Amino acid sequence: MGRYVVGVSGASGVILALHTLRALTNRGHHVELTISQYALYTAAIELGKEYSTLSKFMSQIERQELVTLHSNQDVGCAIASGSFVTDGMIIIPCSVTTLAAVAIGLGDNALRRAADVTLKEKRPLIIVPREAPFSEIHLENMLKLSRLGATIVPPVPAWYTNPKSLEDVENFIVGKVLDVLKIEHDLYPRWKS
Ligand SMILES: Cc1cc2nc3c(=O)[nH]c(=O)nc-3n(C[C@H](O)[C@H](O)[C@H](O)COP(=O)(O)O)c2cc1C
Asked: Could you tell me if the CB of 97 is within 6 A of ligand 1?
């Protein structure tokens, strides 16, 4: 089974992080998780006040034994080192602040440092940036990171899958992330002509 770093930053769409954690752990993969302070702030707004605590966030994951939590303040934690081998990293959702930090190699917290490590070790880095509209700065940062080997997966739906609920859309986005990592799943229906 794989070992993936999941970084959750303070962009809208924190539910995508929960779906990702469930999708990975329900398939037996290990997750090295770090969550920014603003991600918890956003979670409290988007999911309910009780989500401002890490324990509530973690309680939504069935197979918690597969998740190792790293304080985002701790830049000395395992995921901050290239010697800690992982199969890649997902930043979901990714704020444009964290996007900018990663684009300039700023490792001022565990999430950003882990992303920098993932790039330097040339491991898969999947970034799910959420903002609308994007400024030229955001677009330049995405282009730079794409050229450096990261994969940009915007959290946008595909209408051809005929989603019936927001959860269908969320599963589609997480499915596209897992596709990049070549993790098998049935989170969305594949196109058949
Ligand atoms: C309710 C709420 C929604 C937000 N949504 C976004 C967003 O969609 N995209 C974004 O880039 N920043 C968004 N922000 C701003 C970020 O949280 C803020 O820039 C923060 O400093 C990001 O830090 P982080 O990347 O370390 O989590 C939002 C903030 C709040 C409070």
From this structure: yes
**pLDDT tens digit sequence for 38-83:** 999 999 999 999 988 889 989 999 999 999 999 999 999 999 999 9
Q: What is the 3-state secondary structure (H, E, C) of 131-180?
A: CCCCCHHHHHHHHHHHHCCCEECCCCCCHHHCCCCHHHHHHHHHHHHHHH
Residue 93: is the preceding peptide bond cis (ω within 30°)? yes
Quick: pLDDT tens for 158-189: 999 999 999 999 999 999 999 999 999 999 99
Q: From the CB of residue 28, how many other CB atoms can be counted at a distance below 10 Å?
A: 10
Does residue 189 have a cis peptide bond before it, meaning omega lies within 30 degrees of 0?
no
Give the predicted TM-score (pTM) of the model: 0.98
What distance in angstroms lies between residue 193's CA and the mean position of ligand 1's atoms? 39
Mutational pocket test of ligand 1: of 6, 15, 40, 97, the residue with most ligand atoms within 8 Å of the beta carbon: 97
